[in-house]
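Hi V.,

Quick status before I head out on leave. The structure for the redesign project is tokenized and pasted below; the design run finished overnight.
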């Protein structure tokens, strides 16, 4: 059965090539061109497997659509198409609940690889036999995608949640930057700007550390990657 994608894109010069390539790669595609049109699909959003949202629209932004989807409690994978890779846009996308972003102009093959990687990751989320991870003062409910640190529930984006799960599963061991990119994005990690990972880490530290500039949990191992340090309750 084909994966269904809702594509929100108003650039007519892009639309035909996008739809053709996605269909040729085995995806079913429904196209909408405005924020209003996209929001009209919200009641049926569960019939889709992934959303591709252009950031700049004639009547709003893809961020706003993403926020409304997440407010419904829906964790459907979301990729942003953005004309800018400025850090402020990356952060806005992460904060609104996006999973990945692709900067225009992009190769259509790259987008398809990112889609497949994202569908693989989200499809594997619930295939874990262990439903709860506990490491010192942190508790993760994998089925409910909930995280508590010292009894306080953390409000994480889906990308921050996946990064945290990866680090906590490997507590006490160094997780290299390249292995994080492989796990969170695609085996061809060069598709993703390494700077994006630094942004994820910094945002995560702001949510979990008492003093983000002197982290107790999420430790940088210079030249290698990151390590989750288990802190006793």
């Amino acid at each position: 059965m084909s994966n269904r994608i809702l594509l929100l894109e108003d650039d007519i010069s892009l639309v035909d090539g996008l739809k053709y390539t996605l269909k040729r790669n085995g995806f079913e595609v429904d196209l909408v061109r405005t924020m209003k049109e996209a929001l009209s699909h919200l009641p049926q959003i569960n019939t889709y497997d992934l959303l591709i949202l252009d950031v700049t629209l004639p009547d709003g932004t893809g961020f706003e659509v993403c926020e409304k989807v997440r407010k419904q409690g829906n964790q459907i994978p979301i990729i942003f198409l953005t004309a800018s890779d400025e850090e402020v846009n990356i952060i806005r996308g992460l904060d609104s609940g996006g999973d990945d972003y692709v900067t225009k102009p992009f190769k259509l093959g790259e987008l398809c690889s990112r889609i497949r990687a994202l569908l693989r990751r989200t499809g594997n989320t619930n295939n874990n036999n262990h439903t709860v991870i506990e490491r010192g003062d942190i508790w993760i409910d994998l089925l409910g995608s909930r995280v508590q640190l010292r009894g306080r529930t953390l409000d994480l984006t889906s990308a921050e949640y996946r990064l945290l799960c990866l680090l906590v599963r490997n507590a006490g061991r160094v997780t290299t930057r390249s292995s994080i990119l492989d796990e969170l994005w695609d085996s061809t990690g060069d598709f993703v700007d390494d700077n994006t990972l630094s942004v994820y880490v910094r945002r995560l530290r702001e949510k979990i550390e008492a003093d983000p500039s002197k982290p107790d949990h999420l430790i940088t191992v210079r030249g290698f990657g990151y390590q989750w340090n288990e802190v006793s309750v």
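Above is the designed sequence. The two ends are 46 Å apart (CA to CA).

G. will cover questions while I'm gone.

Best,
W.
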